[in-house]
């Protein structure tokens, strides 16, 4: 008795005929018949009653089917366990990535490193504000990539890129398209779409806000962009995320008086000084640091 013969037997039972089983398991009908016959000869009883148009299980066949299903399930679980155990030895790179910098320059650096270490496993936690560094503190990641939000002397960091943050709004949310800076009074009644801080140890409040203005919170930039594009608010957002909307005019870039409407935000590769890095994470740190 083989695992393949059991799979064929179960396929015949569950698909109702030898022909349907052959299609389901990508075998010929004669090979299906041969596998069932081999099982019946080995144990000395019939698995199917063939006196009708469709084969039906005999009493012995019904008992055999129940145990065959259990055995195949156990075999599948054992195979999955084997793959999981084999993957334990594969090196893993864990990165806490700021949601604002999931864009080509940063991802290209990760891709280049992966091409040099094709067997590595990659784990990326996308975080915002204090959540980026918190993943290092909780040892859920070895390295972080993002801005220097709430950083202190316990971290090493090296600048690897920068992004352009701009302030955008849907023209449908404005009475007229402005040709001069928008006032706080004009924006205060409109929701400022912000991303919630994903950290829990020491949440960091947003800096670029209008005092007294209405605030809405979302969990990621895709939802932020969707709300702004639907004329439900305004926000600062990485320019690369809304490039298409700026080009087709569904969003416009605006200047707000006495507000950081547009700025370059450096992105850094960050590590905790006292946290030892795995050999793979140390290679990533050294190679990325050397390339900038």
Write a concise keyword list for the protein shown above.
3 domains, 7-stranded mixed sheet, alpha/beta, Arc Repressor Mutant, subunit A, D-Maltodextrin-Binding Protein, domain 2, two-stranded antiparallel sheet, elongated, 292 residues
Compact description:
It is built from 10 helices and 11 strands.
Task: Write up what this structure looks like.
- There is one protein chain.
- The protein has 292 residues and is an alpha/beta fold.
- The strands form three sheets. Strands 3, 4, 5, 6, 9, 10 and 11 form a seven-stranded mixed β-sheet that branches. The protein has a two-stranded antiparallel ribbon with strand order 1-2.
- It has ten helices and eleven strands.
- The chain folds into three domains: 3-87, Arc Repressor Mutant, subunit A, CATH 1.10.10; 92-161 and 266-290, Periplasmic binding protein-like II (D-Maltodextrin-Binding Protein, domain 2, 3-Layer(aba) Sandwich), CATH 3.40.190.10; 163-265, Periplasmic binding protein-like II (D-Maltodextrin-Binding Protein, domain 2, 3-Layer(aba) Sandwich).
- It has helices at residues 3-15, 18-24, 29-43, 59-87, 104-116, 130-137, 184-187, 221-229, 243-248, 279-290; strands at residues 48-49, 56-57, 92-98, 121-127, 143-146, 155-169, 192-195, 215-218, 234-238, 252-253, 262-272.
Estimated structural class: alpha/beta
Strand coverage percent: 15-25%
Note the quaternary state here.
single chain
Distance between the termini: 61 Å
Q: Any idea what the CATH superfamily of the largest domain is called?
A: Periplasmic binding protein-like II
Q: How are helices and strands ordered from N to C?
A: HHHEEHEHEHEEHEEHEHEEH
How many separate domains make up the residues?
3
Secondary structure: helix percent: 25-40%
**What would CATH call the class of the largest domain?**
Alpha Beta
Average pLDDT number: 89
